[in-house]
Amino acid sequence: MTTFSKCKSCQNQFFGNYCNLCGEKIIEEKDFSMRSIVGQAVGAITNLDSKLLRSIKLLFFYPGKLSMAFVEGIRVPYMKPFQLFVLANVFFFIFLSDIDIFRTPAKWFFSEWYDGIQVLNYVRDIAEKQNLTHEEIAIMYDAKSSELAKGLVILLVPIIALIGQLLNWRSKMAYGKHIIFAIHFFSFLLGLLVIWFALLKFVRPYLDFEQYWNIVPVIFLSWIYYSISTKRFYGGSWPMAILKGGLGIFLINFFVHLYRVGINLYTLNNL
Ligand SMILES: [Zn+2]
C-alpha cells in the first residue's frame, strides 16, 4: 500500500518519499540520528565534489557534451550551468584580475590612443582637476575598472548565445538552449585562460603580458573547441562546424574587445 502524504513546504498531495512539485523530502525521526546528520554533511561535500569533477571533466574533454546532457534533461549528475559559470568567474578573477582581457590595467591603458586622444593626456587633465597624482588616478582606475569588468562580464553570455543562434539559425532552437551552450563555452574559455597563463608564468617567470601573441594559442584552442562543441550540440557537417567555429571565435573576440574598450572608457570617464 502506498501512503498518501501532504507536502509541508507547498501543501501538494503526493505519493512516495519526495514531493513531486517542489522536491521536499518527508522527514522521519531517523533523519535526525547522528549517523544521518554526519552522512548528510559528508554527502553535501562529496556530492558537490563529484558533480563539480564530473562537470569539469565533460567541459574540458568532451566539448559540447555537457550542454547536450543538460538540454536533453540529464541534469542531476552535473553542476547547474550558472553555478559552473560563477565558479569559473571567481577562479578567473582571483588568478587573472590583471590580465588585459576584460579591462586594460592603468599601466598599459594610460598610454593608449582612442579616437585620436591619448589617454595619458586625459589622465593628466583629471589629475590636475582633482589635485591627485598620476599614481593615485591609476590606483583609482584599476580598482574601479576591475570591479566593473568582473560585475558586468555576464553581459557577454547573451551575446555569445546570440552568436550561436546566428550561426545555427536553421536549428530553430529556443534561445535558452543557446544560452546553455554559451555559458558552457564561456566557462571553458575562462578556465582555459587561467591554465594557459599559469603555464606561461611557469615557463617564463618575467612574462610581458601585453604581448598579443600570448593569447594566440588560446584563440586557436578555443576555435577547435567551439567547432567540436558546435558539431556535437548543433549537428551538421564537420567543414561547416569548423567554419562556424572560426566565425564564432572571431565574433566573440570582437565583442570581448568592445567590452574591454567599453569598461576602460566608462571607468576613465567616471573617475
Ligand atoms: Zn512540495
Fraction in beta strands: under 5%
Count of strand segments: 4
Tell me the number of helical segments per DSSP (H or I, 4 or more residues long): 10
Helix/strand/pairing class, anyone? mainly alpha
Q: Would you identify the regions where 5 or more consecutive residues have pLDDT less than 50?
A: none
- What small molecules accompany the polymer chains? zinc ion
What would you call the shape?
Answer: globular
Order of helices and strands: EEHHHHEEHHHHHH
Roughly how many Å is the radius of gyration?
A: 24 Å
Question: How would you characterize the overall build of this protein?
Answer:
With 271 residues, this protein is mainly alpha-helical. The protein folds into two domains: 4-45, no CATH class; 61-269, no CATH class. It is 66% helix and 4% strand. The protein is built from ten helices and four strands, in the order E-E-H-H-H-H-E-E-H-H-H-H-H-H. It has helices at 34-61, 65-72, 81-95, 106-109, 119-130, 134-152, 156-167, 175-203, 216-234, 238-269; strands spanning 4-6, 13-15, 113-114, 117-118. A hairpin with a 6-residue loop joins strand 1 (4-6) and strand 2 (13-15). Helix 7 (156-167) runs antiparallel to helix 10 and helix 9 (216-234) packs across helix 10 (238-269). The radius of gyration is 24 Å and the shape is globular. Bound molecules: zinc ion. Zinc ion binds next to loops.
